[in-house]
Amino acid sequence: MKEFILIAGPCAIEDKEMALHIAKEVKSICTDLGIRYIFKGSYRKANRSRLDSFTGIGDEKALRILKEVGEELGLETITDIHESHEAEMVAKFVDHIQIPAFLCRQTELLLAAAKTGKGVNIKKGQFLSPEAMVFPVEKVESVNPGSAWVCERGVSFGYSDLIVDATAIHRLKKLGVPVIMDCTHSVQKPNKTEGVTGGDPSLIETIALSAMATGADGYFIETHPDPKSAKSDPHTMLELSKLKGILVKAMKIRKALNDA
3-state SS of the chain: helix, strand, coil percent to 5? Predict the structure, then answer.
């Protein structure tokens, strides 16, 4: 049985103290449950609704925090990029690179990420079917075979909601690469008129458990000790104290399926 993967951390790197606190807590949980843990934090938030939204503490400062957290705790790390010229710089600080959902068709961005030799987690666009993800995967794999993952995060429904198709994990697995379920961005309610993305974190557990039951290879979960005080995505992050309970249930489902 392959290791289950958890990509988790705050939405954005706020400071080293918070990053270390979250990473230590999640590492402890994953060690107990036998989960491969990859620490996530965005070094810069480029896709914000409002001009005055928080975007980061400075690129190099945030990237150094990511690198230091990984080295101090012995963890793999991942962050997202938004333009092709960022790939080479970011690759010096992290072990894996993530492609945002809105940008998953950007050929130069995908190729630049692949050329770094890092693992590439490609978020599925809210506007794409699972089958259409074969093309982003092909772009990455053409440069660095075996490096691509795909990450499901729901599809657009109307103007301000997302829906997770229960068949999506099964269909994405036909691409032959690891499939990650984004359990937090899937509960977003985007395009709010106040310019701040909403969400319903009470649904995170439902998304996580159903994804495990349908064969997900890993989870992506943004988490924070006090989501309401977070500088980015406060309405969708999972409260850190709730993470272990969800993962315990999820791993019981995984064991049952493998024992069946």
Answer: 40, 20, 40
Identify the band that residue 195 occupies on the pLDDT scale cut at 50, 70 and 90.
low
Structural tokens at position 202: 């009470």
In a 3-state reduction of DSSP, which class is residue 84?
coil
Report which of 124, 161, 120 is spatially closest to residue 140, judged by C-alpha positions: 120
Residue 1 reports pLDDT greater than 70: no
For the entire predicted model, the pTM comes to: 0.94
Contact 222, 236 (CB under 8 A): yes
CATH number for the domain including 97? 3.20.20.70
Using 50, 70 and 90 to split pLDDT, how confident is the model at 155? very high
Q: Is the dihedral of CA 164, 10, 56, 81 positive or negative?
A: negative
Distance CA 40, CA 9 (A): 5
As for how many domains the chain has, the answer is 1
Cα R_g (the chain), whole angstroms:
17
Q: Range of 98's domain?
A: 5-259
